[in-house]
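Objective 1b of the project was to move from sequence-level analysis to a structural picture of ligand recognition. The entry below was assembled by the postdoctoral researcher (A.K.) and checked by the PI before modelling. It contains the amino acid sequence of the target and the SMILES of the bound compound, flavin-adenine dinucleotide.
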Amino acid sequence: MSTHDVLIVGSGHNALVCALLLARSGQRVHVLERADVIGGATRSERPFRRAPEVQCSTGAYLLGLMPPELVTKLDVDLPLIRRDPHYFLPTTEGRYLLFGSDRDALRRQMIDAFGEADWEADQRLQAELDAFREDVGPAWMAPALSVEETAERHVRPALRQAFVDLCRGSIGDYLERFGFESDLLKAMYAVTDGFTGSTGTGTPRAPA
Ligand SMILES: Cc1cc2nc3c(=O)[nH]c(=O)nc-3n(C[C@H](O)[C@H](O)[C@H](O)COP(=O)(O)OP(=O)(O)OC[C@H]3O[C@@H](n4cnc5c(N)ncnc54)[C@H](O)[C@@H]3O)c2cc1C
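Corresponding predicted holo structure:
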């Protein structure tokens, strides 16, 4: 132990970022990982023995928590692929949604599959999330604050309570505010975007 200044338990991307920055600042860093591969929820694996070329993410598949400022600071070469379309919602009745960068196509699909009211609700949801992103973006690179302090310091006054409710409350209650009619759409947002996180879904394991 005396040969290390810092001991980091786990090797998810947060740990690896910390290890890199600490090591560069001259600290002797030791990273402990219980799995036999590093990377935590961000790593890709090939879990299918009969299709070894098929790669799957074990968790994170969108670059949500690695802001460009951090990539620059780390000076790492991170090859990125744009996922477009980025989302597929099938139903058992043949209806489906394919989300991509083409907003007109998405609008047509959403109205055809679910109706005008759900499209309008989705627009309201996306506008609020855009506003949160814009307000909270700078907080990612600043020292961590509580949810309430983050709201106070970064979020525009009209949306502060909504931000706290989104972070602290029920995703069901949050989605109800936008007037969605389709339970399927609400379930999609609740499960994919509201319930993402290693704590909620269980820490991914290395393949057997
Ligand atoms: C299904 C799913 C989808 C997600 N999608 C996205 C996404 O698209 N975009 C996004 O930005 N984020 C996404 N996330 C969230 C993202 O994966 C996590 O926020 C991120 O991985 C957290 O990184 P971390 O370094 O804190 O920990 P983790 O990635 O959870 O890594 C923790 C590591 O510590 C190890 N460990 C734990 N306990 C010990 C111990 N006692 N001793 C030794 N090692 C230990 C674990 O084996 C693991 O390797 C998703 C998460 C999940 C589960």
